[in-house]
Amino acid sequence: MIILSVKTCSGLDDLNLLSSVCCYWSARVFIANMPGLLLGDVFPNFEAETTNGKIKFHDFLGDSWGILFSHPRDYTPVCTTELGRAAKLSHEFSRRNVKMIALSIDSLEDHRGWTKDILAYNNEESGCAFPFPIIADNQRELAVALGMLDPDEKDKDGMPLTARCVFVIGQDKKLKLSLLYPATTGRNFDEILRVVDSLQLTAKNRVATPADWQPGERVMVPPNIPEEEAAAMFPAGVYTKELPSERKYLRYTPQP
Ligand code: BEZ
């Protein structure tokens, strides 16, 4: 397939078309062999044991959005601060109709003991229920299948730990966002909420959110909307910034 792609860069139209198709499929085959999921892929409907019982992922999600985030290990300091923060923000995720679920490569028993520590870290009553389930992946099966391992961080037996993965899944069960942090860098859950706000806004409206956007701020008109359509599409108005190139691509509109 690769030889054909090289041969067909000769300028012949029909062969060029064939070449493009082959190049596309070569890329897909290459990507399909890489660990991990691509944006737009239907998220695997895996089964797992969790602190709230056995789940089948799509049934767990139901009609909600979902966020699955992995952790290197139970009873570790950065993970404790992350799960503590995620637990404190759980009402913000539910307000956005996002179901939360965490994963760590330890047992249910460890997870149950660890959540008591996390609640204590949050200065909450030890009897409080933890607000979302944690998957027990002590055989690392799911971590491997979902491309979550961090080859640079190993446990005492030399086995790789899980990286800090974030998957946001839409109501159509497709992957909308993935983030991958190494074990040594804790995530910013305010940023994750901000991203969910952008994903949900842009799923409903043909807009894009600029750098550092916060909910309520102006948004951008995507470049594939022609000027004449933009005015009708955004009755609140479109402001176009003048630029040295005189190209009219930096277009803002109030958040719909
Ligand atoms: C932690 O969660 O503190 C951690 C875990 C693995 C490597 C480094 C830090």
TrEMBL record:
Pfam families in the cross-refs: 1-cysPrx_C (PF10417), AhpC-TSA (PF00578)
Gene Ontology CC annotations of this record: cytosol; mitochondrion
EC number(s) reported in the record: 1.11.1.27, 2.3.1.23, 3.1.1.4
GO BP: cell redox homeostasis
Positions annotated as active site in the UniProt record: C79 (cysteine sulfenic acid (-soh) intermediate)
Keyword flag Oxidoreductase: yes
Taxonomic path: Eukaryota, Metazoa, Chordata, Craniata, Vertebrata
Similarity annotation: Belongs to the peroxiredoxin family. Prx6 subfamily.
Protein's UniProt name: Peroxiredoxin-6
Gene: LOC110530529
Function: Thiol-specific peroxidase that catalyzes the reduction of hydrogen peroxide and organic hydroperoxides to water and alcohols, respectively.
Keywords: Antioxidant, Multifunctional enzyme, Oxidoreductase, Peroxidase, Redox-active center
Domain of life from the UniProt record: Eukaryota
Catalytic activity annotation: a hydroperoxide + 2 glutathione = an alcohol + glutathione disulfide + H2O; a 1,2-diacyl-sn-glycero-3-phosphocholine + H2O = a 1-acyl-sn-glycero-3-phosphocholine + a fatty acid + H(+); 1,2-dihexadecanoyl-sn-glycero-3-phosphocholine + H2O = 1-hexadecanoyl-sn-glycero-3-phosphocholine + hexadecanoate + H(+); a 1-acyl-sn-glycero-3-phosphocholine + an acyl-CoA = a 1,2-diacyl-sn-glycero-3-phosphocholine + CoA
Domain Thioredoxin: 37-201
UniProt-recorded Gene Ontology molecular function terms: 1-acylglycerophosphocholine O-acyltransferase activity; peroxiredoxin activity; phospholipase A2 activity
Organism field: Oncorhynchus mykiss (Rainbow trout)
Record keyword Cell wall biogenesis/degradation present: no
